[in-house]
Amino acid sequence: MSPEPAVSLNQALDTKAANTIRFLAVDAINKANSGHPGMPMGMADVAYVLWTRHLRYNATDPAWPGRDRFLLSAGHGSMLQYALLHLAGYDLPMSELQRFRQLHSRTPGHPEHGMTPGVETTTGPLGQGLGNAVGMALASKMAQARFAAPGFNPSDWNVYAIAGDGCLMEGISHEAASFAGHLGLGNLCVLYDDNRITIEGGTDLACSDDAGKRFEAYGWHVQHIDAYDHAAIDAAFTAAKTETARPSLIICKSHIGYGSPKRQDTRHAHGEPLGAEETSATKKHLGWPESPTFLVPDDVAARWQARAAELAPVYEQWQKHFAAWRAAHAEQAAQWDAIMERRVPADLLEQMVAQIPVAANSTRNHGNKAMNIAAKLVPALVGGSADLEPSTKTWLADSAAVTRSDFAGRNLHFGIREHGMGSVLNGMALSTGFIPYGASFLVFTDYARPAIRLSAIMKQPVIWVFTHDSIFVGEDGPTHEPVEHLNVMRSIPGLMVIRPADAAETAAAWALAIERSDGPTLLSLSRQNTAALVRPTDFSPGQLRRGGYVLLENNSKDAITIIATGSEVGAAVDAAERLGTVGIAARVVSMMAPQLFLAQDAAWRDRVLPPGGKRVSFEAGATHWWRGIVGDGGLSLGIDRYGESAPAEVLAEYFGFTGESVAKRIREWAGR
Questions:
Q1: For residue range 512-559, what is the model confidence (pLDDT) as tens digits?
Q2: Catalytic residue of the set 278, 389, 418, 505
Q3: How many Cα atoms within 13 Å fall on the side-chain side of residue 410?
Q4: Which domains does the chain have, with CATH numbers?
Q5: How many CB atoms lie within 10 A of CB 596?
Q6: What is the Cα 120 distance to its own chain's centre?
Q7: What is the DSSP pairing of strand 529-530 with strand 361-362?
Q8: Residue of 368, 567, 573, 591 lying closest to 474 (CA atoms)
Q9: What is the DSSP letter of 149?
Q10: Is 418 among the residues known to form the active site?
Q11: What burial letters (b/e) apply to 149-162, b meaning 16+ CB within 10 Å?
């Protein structure tokens, strides 16, 4: 915990310091002629008290494991965070504040993880940051269960997030808050900027919720404060830290555009610069000099320097305790290194392919075998399902479930909360070395997509496991049969989509996902059984790292190449063999990860897909994504309509996805 500040409350100085934050935001937004001044103006006092009296940080070491985490879920108010980081001494000079929202500046329109020192997560889509905060608090609890020792806990941190009316209206906040309350995450404190204004006007246009009662029902500790009463703000943070059995919500009664004579408490304060005239009136109203702009008074700078001096011994003491802990607890320290560094054996893929049982089975069942092999080799692997584990097969067999009384397990019950699960996974990945996975049905990427997209933007190694990946879900019908979803997921930049065909490919898919450090991976797994594939004698597991390889070769110069994924690969082999009986040369390429294949060297791509050759793609999904691989003259077999409710084998016949049907369609296309 942070020490109580040596510097006592000084109302005049504290007001000046809050106004410094306020007008750094106003001036930056005016200069850019773009931005959202209302929230930074309204929440400057709350943020100032938090940062100078409670938040534990070290500006010279932004990644210090012992730091508290601060998130701006209401990311449109980004200038509040940039002003705080600048004043706190992070590597964010005034010149960057003056380049707010400009190309390649470190002060983009919404906070971006990896771009600005001290920014813990990318925010903007409302409510996602609140879910990230829940994930960070959960990761702290799980790390504490692994690494805490008498006298020292290297993973003991608090998480603070500022959320606005938009965050609390979005459905994701309900899911994430319910999950946090269920687990009793007492290290989480959300500051609700209750200014009662949205873009269209007052919140009463569309919302009559009592947020406090809602969060109390979720099991949260709820407080109400005046957002400009520094003593009350300070006391609320102290009470929140004291309450360790429940997450805390501090409802801050605030004024959007605080101090602006014409904009305060109006929708115009949300997303419009104040402009020269209203800025002048606001500075006059709050007793602030009109010039120079971007003013940081000396006594305010000294106040922030004093806070840095207060925190320096905390940082140094933590480092000393950490070194002593490492020396005294070698086994825990080794596990700390393995998890925090996300250590993965160099031959993980080869080990997993060698160990996984070979048999005809669904790739979801192969996936369960694969992930449990991986779990023994990679202690950082943790995760769970959105109430679908019996169907997704994503339970780590040698571990327990996380509960509010025991966070030592590796399995998480997310409940029926795909939205919330995704944002929690991102928060876990951002705050520790855990490699988190979350599971559901592929059709429910519709619910998880915002978080999937953010994991790609932030390049976080989150593993998304989605089963029931085609119309072969069968009897559940078109609402549960994904058709367009693989195409949609493959269109997300930075998201690697892998659809394996058998045990070896599924083991490789899990290994590739775990090995990946520069972005998320989506595993698309089948409910129905797939064939146990027979590979060529010259095959090596390393080919599985290429995303696509030749499964069945035919050296005829005019051979047709059938490119298939997942459960369709077995039918593609059957089709090729049937074509051979009528004198049509065909070869089969299994392309479990087409994005990865396209990133290979030209020699490998030409070996697998000979230039100028006839190509057919075959996947039980929408076909348009494959046009770029088969070419204008190629044939794409799939389904460009919604499915039907019937047993899987009936649907295979009806939609022409059997080997016999595929062979017939290729013959018709080839004019043979």
A1: 999 999 999 999 999 999 999 999 999 999 999 999 999 999 999 999
A2: 418
A3: 21
A4: 11-313 (3.40.50.970), 348-530 (3.40.50.970), 541-670 (3.40.50.920)
A5: 19
A6: 12
A7: antiparallel
A8: 567
A9: B
A10: yes
A11: eeebbbbbbbbbbb
